[in-house]
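User: Please fill in residues for this 628-position structure.
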């Protein structure tokens, strides 16, 4: 069995109690349909040959009414059960897929565009969720078919041979239709995903498109796959029509053949009129397998969708260990790390230091930050926090230890306060966000004050309890809330990935002051394009094409023209205001405090990678990854 087919089976099994109701109603309805020709035939015989005023005809008429009533009730209840079981199956599958996708982390978007992911997790899971109805109801059609064969055999074996020959033809048609439809449905769904992926990209750049006046061109780009989508839809319609004609043509031919043979048997006195009528009805029921075409088409779409969803489920989510962190200052080590664009990175970042990561665009700065906090696992090498490999830490320990802030933070939660408190575990004793006890207010407000977000949050109508949709914010205000969220969580390591790029100069200096004062007990890894941020850091990591070109103090590195060119290049692209200022201009490298000087000058142990505090790493060319 294919992995996709196993996924379909697993999804069907998750239909809950309504799946059992669907099975029961389908089976009972099938037996009711199977019994109806028999009781109708007996009724005809009683009416034709029975004694006048006898009770036999009335009894069989009552049986006919009961069979019809049971069929109608089973159909009605089956519709309800199929919808409910399908909804439960879809919900289970969506939860599984979303949980797996989020567990894999951001690397999954490198393989699947966001619009494609949304299509697979939304529309495709819904198509798989219809599988319970397709499988159960379609399989129930086997009961009338098998019963028709048995009944015809009891009436006259010669009629059975005629029916079986027709059923073989119908089965071949259905099998071919399932194979062809699965392939066409997969192509159709891929075209849908292509359109969705382009549409999501266009929506993300809606302001740029409007400003450039390129809406017509963008619409044409988004709908590039529309002719292909139409072509696959037409292929599906043609396949369905062809199979329908082939299967449908068998039924009247079978009925004519059985009536012809049965008529001869009736003339010879081997059949009664009622038996001939029942035989004709059983042929129609037996050949009713051809009506499974719609269920086969739905199953084909479910199988094609399962093949696409299986690609998401088969991605291995990040695995966590069970260790907790020992007491320590937050020392971060990267040993021989290779990850995508990073190559053979060896670093030791002493705990409690503020370290800036700089480099040209594409140098690997954001990737280094992601590896440092285990948003991405390296292909080779090890990342340790206070001597513990990050994969060995439990999810809770890693979440408490590391806080992230990004350039464009996604604010999640019902309220502003909930967005900052995202990821915090138990409520913190003390005042709530607006003075109410029993909330995480003290931690949230302290983090917001450090990020300089408390002032504008308090001006909102509901303060920290303001719903996010009722709190329009600028890019800088969103960044401040993202910083507050990181400050509330990361008790050992703060990772700021260009997280102050939208702040004004005054606010940025205030946040920098908080990083160097209130948060000085945490290790701070700051990805930046700004010379001011690099100058304020204790040390600087200079990346070039995925390798550590040098690390040391900003003032020492500034003597290298290539280092200065990093900021000049960013300034020319609009990402670093004031970046071309020479050393000694308004932004000067801050000399480390005496408290830090001793740790900076501590010599490394033999065989250890050079530390950022190693005096030999203070020039622009003396330190490279993996060498000394």
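Assistant: Residues filled in for all 628 positions:
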């Amino acid at each position: 069995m294919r992995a996709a087919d196993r996924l379909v089976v697993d999804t069907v099994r998750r239909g809950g109690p309504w799946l059992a109701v669907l099975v029961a109603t389908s089976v009972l309805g099938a037996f009711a349909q199977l019994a109806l020709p028999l009781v109708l035939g007996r009724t005809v015989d009683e009416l034709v040959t029975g004694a006048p005023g006898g009770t036999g005809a009335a009894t069989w008429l009552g049986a006919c009414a009961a069979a019809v009533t049971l069929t109608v009730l089973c159909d009605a209840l089956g519709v309800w059960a199929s919808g409910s079981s399908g909804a439960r199956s879809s919900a289970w599958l969506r939860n599984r897929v979303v949980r797996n996708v989020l567990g894999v982390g951001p690397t999954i978007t490198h393989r699947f565009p966001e619009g494609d992911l949304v299509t697979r997790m939304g529309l495709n899971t819904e198509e798989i969720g219809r599988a319970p109805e397709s499988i159960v109801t379609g399989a129930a059609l086997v009961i009338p078919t098998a019963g028709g064969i048995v009944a015809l055999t009891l009436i006259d074996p010669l009629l059975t041979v005629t029916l079986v020959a027709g059923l073989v033809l119908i089965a071949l048609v259905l099998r071919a239709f399932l194979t062809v439809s699965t392939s066409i449905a997969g192509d159709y769904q891929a075209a849908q995903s292509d359109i969705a992926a382009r549409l999501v990209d266009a929506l993300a750049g809606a302001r740029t498109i409007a400003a450039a006046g390129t809406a017509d061109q963008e619409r044409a780009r988004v709908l590039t796959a529309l002719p292909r989508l139409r072509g696959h839809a037409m292929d599906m319609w043609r396949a369905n029509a062809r199979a329908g004609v082939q299967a449908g043509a068998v039924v009247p031919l079978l009925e004519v053949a059985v009536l012809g043979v049965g008529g001869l048997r009736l003339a010879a006195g081997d059949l009664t009129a009622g038996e001939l009528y029942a035989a004709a009805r059983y042929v129609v029921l037996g050949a009713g397998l051809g009506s499974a075409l719609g269920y086969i088409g739905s199953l084909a779409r479910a199988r094609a969708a399962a093949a696409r969803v299986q690609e998401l489920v088969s991605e291995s989510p990040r695995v966590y260990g069970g260790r907790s962190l020992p007491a320590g200052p937050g020392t971060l080590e990267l040993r021989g790390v290779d990850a995508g664009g990073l190559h053979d990175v060896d670093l030791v970042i002493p705990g409690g230091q503020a370290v800036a990561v700089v480099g040209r665009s594409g140098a690997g700065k954001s990737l280094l930050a992601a590896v440092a906090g285990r948003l991405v696992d390296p292909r080779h090498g090890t990342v340790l926090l206070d001597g513990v490999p990050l994969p060995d830490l439990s999810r809770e320990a890693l979440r408490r230890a590391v806080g992230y802030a990004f350039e464009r933070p996604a604010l999640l939660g019902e309220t502003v306060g909930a967005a900052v408190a995202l990821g915090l575990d138990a409520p913190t004793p003390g005042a709530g966000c607006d003075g109410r006890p029993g909330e995480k207010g003290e931690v949230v407000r302290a983090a917001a004050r450090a990020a300089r977000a408390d002032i504008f949050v308090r001006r909102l109508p509901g303060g920290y309890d303001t719903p996010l949709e009722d709190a329009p914010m600028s890019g800088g205000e969103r960044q401040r809330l993202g910083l507050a969220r990181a400050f509330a969580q990361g008790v050992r390591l703060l990772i700021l990935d260009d997280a102050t790029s939208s702040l004004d100069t005054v606010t940025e200096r205030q946040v920098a002051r908080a990083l160097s004062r209130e948060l000085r007990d945490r290790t701070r890894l700051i990805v930046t394009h700004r010379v001011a941020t690099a100058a304020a850091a204790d040390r600087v990591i200079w990346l070039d094409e995925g390798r550590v070109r040098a690390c040391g103090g900003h003032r020492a590195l500034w003597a290298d023209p290539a280092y200065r060119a990093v900021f000049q290049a960013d300034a020319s692209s609009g990402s670093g205001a004031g970046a071309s200022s020479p050393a000694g201009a308004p932004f000067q490298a801050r000399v480390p405090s005496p408290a830090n000087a001793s740790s900076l000058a501590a010599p490394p142990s033999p065989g250890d990678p050079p530390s950022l505090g190693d005096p030999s790493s203070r020039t622009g060319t003396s330190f490279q990854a993996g060498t000394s």
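For context: The mean pLDDT is 82.
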